[in-house]
Structures are given as C-alpha cells and as structure tokens.
Amino acid sequence: MVNSTSLLCPDCFYSLLRPPMASNPFSPAPSPLSTDHYLRSLHHVGAFPSPLSIHRSSSAGRVCFRAAAAFRGSRRTKRLNVQPREEASPSVPDLKAGVAVYKPKSYEVVVADAANSLVSALEDGKIRLEIEFPPLPSSISSYKGSSDEFIDANIQLALAVIRKVQDMKGTKSCVVFPDQPEKRRACQLFRTALDTIDGISIGSLDDVPSGPVTSVFKSFLKAMDFDFADDDEGRWKSSEAPSLFVFVNCSTRDLSIIEKYVEKFVVATPALLFNLELDTLRSDLGLLGFPTKELHYRFLSQFVPVFYIRTRDYSKTVPVAPFIINYSGALLRQYPGPWQVMLKQADGSYACIAESATRFTLGETKEELLRVLGLQEEEGSSLGFLRRGFKNATWWEEDVELELSANWRS
User: Where is the DUF1995 domain (predicted)?
Assistant: First the structure.
C-alpha cells in the first residue's frame, strides 16, 4: 500500500507508483509461457504461418511491425514506421501519426504524454475532454487493491498533469471532488502539492444548487457541525476564473451532478473527466437507482478521449499443447493521433497492429488481436459464432443514432 505520508510530495510520487519488477507501469513481468513463444513453436511445426515479423529500417531505432500475409487485408490494419516513444519530451511532439511501440519507463512519461495530448486538444478548441489510463500497475486491480490507493493515485496523477499543463500553457485549473468529505480529505493529504501549483482552486459537486429538502438537510448538518468544512480550503482560491475544470474520483451516481455542474459553472470552459473509468460507469446507466442511458446520449458522448489507455488480458483454447493461450493487448489513443490496437510483447512493450480514425469497440479490439496472432476462426463458422456470441458490443457502442454527439468516438 502506498504510504499516505509520502503522497504530499508532487515530485517523487512517480517512483511510488512504479511497479517493482517491470519497466512498463501498466503490467508486471511477462509469464514464462508467452504468446510469442507459443506462436513461434506453432510455426516450426507448420500449424500456423508466422504471425508477426519484425523488420528494422535503415534508421537506427525504428521498428516496423508487419502482419503476416495470411492476415493482410484487414479493414483497419495499417503498418507503421514510427519512432518508439520512451522518454518524455520537453515540447509537444507530433502525435498525428500515432506510435509503433509504446513502452513508458515510468508514470512520469505517461503523465507527460497525457499533458501533451491535453494541450494539443485545448489548442484545437476542444472543451469536453477525457483522460483515461490505469492509475496503478495492472497487477493491482480495482478489485484487489484498496479504494483509497486508487483515489489517492488519481489525485496525484491529476495534480501532476495540471502542473505540466500549467507549465506548457499557463492554464489555471480547478479540481472538482465528488463531495465535501472527499474535498476535505484531499486538502489534508495533498496540502503541500496544492501549494506548489500556482493559481489552483478546488471545488466539489456539492456546490451545485440543490432542492429544498437537500438544503434543509445540509443546514441541519452545518448546525450540528457535520458539514465537513475545512478552514484551509479558502487558501486555494484564484483571483482569476479557472480555465480548466478537472473532475476526479466520481461515481456513476455523480455523473448526473457533473452534468448540472457543467451547465451551471462550466458552460464555455474546458472540462476534463480524469480517470473516471467511463466505460465501467456507463455499464450502470439505466439500472435501478442509477441515471438513465440518456445521460450518455446527451452528455457523455460530447467528451473527446485525448489520452486513453485501456489494457485487457484474454485467453483462448487451442487443440494443441499448451491448450490455453494467454495474450494481452490495449486500446491506445493520443490526441490528435488515431485509435490504435496494441499487442503486448514479451518485453512488456505494446506494438501497434491496427489503427483507425474512429474508436474501436471492445469486440473489434479483441478481433484485431486474434487476427494478428493467427488465432481467429474462419468468418461465418459455427465455432466463431459460439465464441463471439450473438452480441459482441455494448449498448453505448451500438446506439449511434441516439447520440447527440460522436465526439467520444473520434
């Protein structure tokens, strides 16, 4: 568990979040039974053609990953010849071409990449923005890890991105927490980090005007000294109006309040949803006690993913030893670059195998990984139907005609 006393230093938290056994912050060290080793063994016995070949160009350090001829012709697959990005650049790099290999050495590199993409989107006039990447190494899942670890890590990373964006663009940011207790806790834990960011301000979703019943309840809590107010909260107020609002650690129930907050305070100002795991929150929409699906159609669909990394682990059974193949991949987007499907390599890096100007669905991402690995069933086969099922897309990925905006797909 991350030591809460160490969370106050904004310059050294990257080492705390760095995984102890792997250079890639998104995954632990690869297992001995790797997909690459298995596929090469199949190639030797003639079971499959060589699924992935690596060619080096004349420029040193440039790597081009090419799918085998048996799998060429995919509607989205495109070969890339882009310099791998491993170090943070002091200036905004050209991200329009995407990356061929993504292997950040630490979370400092990830934060720099997220800040660069955010600045590019702000310069293009985008005002509804989303950043999504694993706040902790994937060896610590959201089910196994402590919720406080994820909450604190998200705040740390958000403050780090805010600092870099301020250095690059001079942006004055306001961090919005779900409620007053979360706001007060953050003020106590991250007092030093907040003091190091010039012009930062803080707020909460409780600032949204509420109905008469809620107002009476808040008045009662205040009278009983349970309003969770903090005398130090006033120290983080800027004389200038914020030029960026950052929402952190919000739940599905908070999404409708975020919409009201944006309509009240952030009409023409950029708003950033930071690491809210929107795909997970969308799955609750429409259920009893949660906001309706229309919230996605009219509000969440407006937000452009400017930096997005979603890692996934898969497995597939095959008729030869070892019978079960484990493989991993990721869906990557760095604005203004394309959406990219990345295949995890044995060294922990992610290699681009397909790209598109529009967002891949989760089912399409998995199909691209299977195609390049040579593990995809024949089109229209009964086995392929049994594996995929009748539906291989979520309702928010399918209901295109109901969306007021397609920004979240772009």
Answer: 104-366
